[in-house]
User: What shape does this take?
Amino acid sequence: MSFPHLLPTYARADVAFTHGEGAYLFDEDGRKYLDFGAGVAVNVLGHAHPHLIAALTEQAGKIWHTSNLYRVPGQETLARRLIEATFADTVFFTNSGVEAIEAAIKTARRYHFANGAPERFRIVTFEGAFHGRTLAAIAAGGQKKYLEGFGPKVEGFDQVPFGDARALAEAITDATGALLIEPIQGEGGLRPVPPEFLRHMRQLCDERGMLLIFDEIQTGIGRTGKLFAHEWAGVTPDIMAIAKGIGGGFPLGACLATADAAKGMTTGTHGTTFGGNPLAMAVGNAVLDVVLKPEFLEHVQRVGNYARQQFASLIADYPDVFEDLRGEGLMLGLKMRVPNTEFIDGLRAHGMLAITAGDNVIRLLPPLIIDESHVREAMEKLSAAAAQL
Assistant: This one.
């Protein structure tokens, strides 16, 4: 469908939503949809969550923007809470995930510059990765479809096959300063990185004086049943990019780092006009009010396990449609034997939203507030869409 006043960079579905409630969205015709896309893993507390509405409304009546030329108390509070819950010692707030990735890349390069080794600017990444759409981020991801037509690839990134320890070892040189990976590839097809591989990467970084960067933009803020997905492997990064869920639907990202990794990021080395604005900080703190409660992550684990059990049965029931089930917690993917775009369209016709991914996968990324009844409803709609194919 054509939208003449919009740059045609999206293949938009011909549906517009007017409002949402919990795990549901409603379109202009009043039709109800079960939302298992959550704005691409963003709306972790669903739609119109009362605590988020109250926090944003209260802040909107006070002050919206002052810039980072002055203290923003909400930043200080949110940074402290993130530090207390993670490996990090310091936080830089952004508007988006790709800005958090850019900050992470710059932080890693400045670390080696501050150590007197500016030649150590190269970063090893993995095939199938997706780190965003800026020139540096598409170079880090290395996917041809995103690089094509945008001139020379930004220098400094070396891709190796996913999960290939030998190729990783061979790619590391004296110019390598960091390793960058998503604990679960989202856009790349819901491919979890084995915990032992993440531990191997941590060991390599420690041995070779490199920094370990995790992209937890999609996997973080409870999506896998831990606050961050790397916790399942028992390893910590030196730098981490987060976004999506931390804002619960409001534009917000952050780059977290240890004090040592961030030592090169001194006054004037980086900045943002809108990043960390009072509105975003109010919402981010409200999200953590809910997500940091112990029972919340326990809920995600329980419902995630139930969803995995239920969705696995689809493969046996419809072997010509589904091939396998992937993922962790409430970040699940079904690899398809039919075109994933065709299935997504059919699923939407049955009143359910999901998202495509690479390797012919559909992503099931519901709000983390769903319960078992929503999973059963999703099963009915997935089955109905599969039966039509």
About this structure: The mean pLDDT is 97. The first helix runs from residue 38 to 41. The chain has two domains: 17-49+294-388, 63-291. The longest strand covers residues 322-328.
